[in-house]
Amino acid sequence: MATCYACPATPSIKIAKTSDPACVPCFLNWFEEDVHATITATKIFSRGEKVAIGVSGGKDSTVLAHTLAILNQRYDYGLELFLVCIDEGIAGYRDHSIREVHKNQSDLQLPLKILSYKDLYGWTMDEIVARIGPKNNCTFCGVFRRQALDRGAEKCGAFKVATGHNADDVAETVLMNLLRGDIARLQRSSTQVSGSEGGITRVKPFRYSYQKDVVFYAHFKKLNYFSVECSYSPNAYRGLVRNHLKAIERVSPRVIMEIVRSGEAVVVPQSEAPLIRRKCIQCNYTSSQELCQACRLLSGLNIGESTHDIVKSTKKAPVSTDSSAATSNGCGSGGGGDGCGCNNNSVDF
Ligand SMILES: Nc1ncnc2c1ncn2[C@@H]1O[C@H](COP(=O)(O)OP(=O)(O)OP(=O)(O)O)[C@@H](O)[C@H]1O
């Protein structure tokens, strides 16, 4: 009978990333060591750094917060960790997941900052959807969340945000950008540290961790997390790409890592155009234009512009260094959109 890859015990699972059989204790140890290997290989953290972990209450960020807390102690990274949670104002969804965030905060004993769209922007996502309808709402949510996470990090004195995007998310993003011919975004989404132009940087310690292994880890560790999909998520184009990827993965499990690595191998010649980086005249957030993406969206909302005009107004930046410029089209736009900050449609993280 087969034994665990690392000890004589009977295996309980097959590790998704390596296809090795493993017992639960060896799997848990393997997972943590694999994340440690990613962190050391990609050099995403520096000693003494303050790091804000974006926690939504979902499985990925819940596992991320636990793993980083463990590794920070085990390997003495010397990081000061904070939890930052953004309340988008989606009744029946985010209010429920925030309960899980509180439980995790009490387990981990890390400082928690919760910021809401209502306080930051004057609108909840429920109010925005009531105003603009079911299409394009991921555009608003993505731009606002990205900026809100930066603002949460700033409040903790952190210049780095760690998110729970995993290898499956990154592979989907690489494929989506490739299918859309957006090679500049493909390269941006494949870098180890993004958004470093003087602002707050973003890192993904799970970029080489398989989604299934994250789920196994959460399950075997009995972590508290909320597993319901966002009620407004149309899951259009990313859903298609995800299904294709899952089909290929059944034949060749290594495909996820191979796509992630392929994305990293793409080198795009630097644009001749100078990057313009300034502060938004309204909110002081880093932007490539007078008004940052969030303020442009907000001004359209506040004056009652049509959804089409609001979203169109965010597509004008030719050379964008606006760190909120992760999106330009909406998710509900039938798959043609540049997507949002959430995993369902984003093509930039
Ligand atoms: N409301 C939020 N507050 C704080 N961080 C968030 C929030 N939403 C998303 N994030 C961050 O962005 C990452 C990707 O989020 P997304 O919702 O797209 O994917 P997910 O795979 O469902 O992640 P999770 O399981 O952590 O919710 C999360 O892992 C988390 O780090």
UniProtKB/TrEMBL annotation:
Name of the protein in its database record: Cytoplasmic tRNA 2-thiolation protein 1
InterPro entries according to UniProt: CTU1-like_ATP-bd, CTU1_C, Ncs6/Tuc1/Ctu1, Rossmann-like_a/b/a_fold, TilS/TtcA_N, tRNA_thiolation_TtcA_Ctu1
EC number(s) stated in the UniProt entry for this protein: 2.7.7.-
Superkingdom to which the source organism belongs: Eukaryota
Main enzyme class: transferase
Entry GO terms, CC: cytosolic tRNA wobble base thiouridylase complex; mitochondrion
Residues where ATP binds: G54, V55, S56, D60, I86, G164, D169
PANTHER family: ATPASES OF THE PP SUPERFAMILY-RELATED, CYTOPLASMIC TRNA 2-THIOLATION PROTEIN 1
Sequence similarity: Belongs to the TtcA family. CTU1/NCS6/ATPBD3 subfamily.
Domain tRNA(Ile)-lysidine/2-thiocytidine synthase N-terminal: 50-243
Major localization class: cytoplasm
Pfam families in alphabetical order: ATP_bind_3, zn-ribbon_14
Domain Cytoplasmic tRNA 2-thiolation protein 1 C-terminal intervals: 278-305
GO molecular function term, any single one: ATP binding
Compartment(s): Cytoplasm
